[in-house]
Each structure stands twice: as structure tokens, then as C-alpha cells.
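Q: Okay, next protein. This is Ras-related protein RABF1 from Lupinus angustifolius. I've checked the sequence twice, so it should be correct. Can you predict the 3D structure?
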Amino acid sequence: MGCASSIAARDSRQLGFPNSENDGGHDAKNLRVKLVLLGDSGVGKSCIVLRFVRGQFDPTSKVTVGASFLSQTIALQDSTTVKFEIWDTAGQERYAALAPLYYRGAAVAVVVYDITSPDSFSKAQYWVKELQKHGSPDIVMALVGNKADLNEKREVAVQDGIDYAEKNSMFFIETSAKTADNINELFEDFVDYATSRLPPDILAA
Ligand SMILES: Nc1nc2c(ncn2[C@@H]2O[C@H](COP(=O)(O)OP(=O)(O)OP(=O)(O)O)[C@@H](O)[C@H]2O)c(=O)[nH]1
């Protein structure tokens, strides 16, 4: 079973800590983050989610059909809990028209490209523009260069990712769903980044 199909099998399953009292705002101990993943087909979106939620990697990952949803709750060092509600969208062109259904309600978006594919970097830039035009005006975005384990096949320089992210006020990180490098950091550090930029009530649990 591939990353995408493994995710589908766990559709809607709640992991992690049970919900507890909401004390609201940025100082809340419990945050809820509606997150959408966008990017070209094959860049590794489903594998990133599967690595984050289950700690697994499947090299035979299947393409996502439509989108898949799952949630994961983590505890940060200051004992804040963060419940991620993740929409993993399908990157294939034929599903492009569905994307607005998922990104419209999202407070944060993660746009993924593959560091070995300049085309996927261009596609990521397309998604960033689309979100800037049609996403929530407050949306906070991350740019993720995945497949960092394939450094010897790299065709997108780290600095190009950093520069584009900076120009567009985005969080930036390179990850590997295969080795797990920076996967937890992506979610944990991005939440940190987003909480300091979003209006106080948006991430209240
Ligand atoms: N080497 C390497 N391969 C990866 C990594 N992440 C994903 N892959 C591989 O890339 C392929 C596509 O991964 P998926 O997660 O299914 O890609 P996707 O972006 O969800 O694709 P769509 O569902 O079509 O949008 C699979 O063969 C994965 O095994 C990574 O970090 N490193």
C-alpha cells in the first residue's frame, strides 16, 4: 500500500491527545490548525503526511484521488497541544479544480515541491499565487522542498527556495519523507511561525 492509500485507510481517524478545554487566543494551551497541502503530483505530499502521522514511509505511494483528510495532535515543549486537521490534496492536473474546496477554509497552507524537479518548483509558485489571489486573506504559507535525501539529483538550489519564500512571506524548510528529516520540524516550527502571524481567534481549539 502506498502513502496515499495508507492515508485513505485511516481517513478521519483521530490520533494523539483527547480534546480538552479551550482557553482561546494565542496563549491557548490547545490550538486547532486547519492545514492544506498543495503541490505537483509526485512531490511527496501524502508521504510527508504519512511520515508525520504514522512515522512510516512507503516507496510505492499511489497518487491521491481528490483529497484525503486526517488529523494529528501533538504536544509542543511548552505543553501546548496542537490539533492538525490536514487536507492532503491530489496534485494531478485533473483534480486542480477541486483545490479551492480545500484551501478556502484553511488557515495555513503547505506548498510542496521536489528538489529534483524544477517543474514542481514552478508549480509550487503557481499555487502560491493562487492562494494569494483566492485563499483566505490571512492565510499563512509554508514552502517545502521535499526529497532532500536526493541531494545528488538536486535541481532546485536551497537558496532559490529561501529567496522565493522570503519574497512571499512564507516559512521555508527542506524535508525528506523518506528519511524523516525535518518532518516534525516542518509541522512544529510552522505552527510557531503561524501563531505569531494569524489573528488570535483563528487557531483557537
Ligand atoms: N526519495 C524520496 N522519495 C520520496 C519522498 N517523498 C515521497 N517520495 C516518493 O515520491 C513518490 C510520490 O509520493 P506521494 O506522497 O504519493 O506524492 P504526492 O505529492 O502525494 O502525489 P499526488 O497524490 O499525485 O498529489 C512516491 O514514489 C514516494 O515514495 C522523499 O522524501 N524522498
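A: Here is a summary of the prediction. The chain has one domain: 30-194. The helical segments are 3-9, 45-54, 99-103, 118-134, 158-167, 183-195.
Q: Noted. On to the next one.
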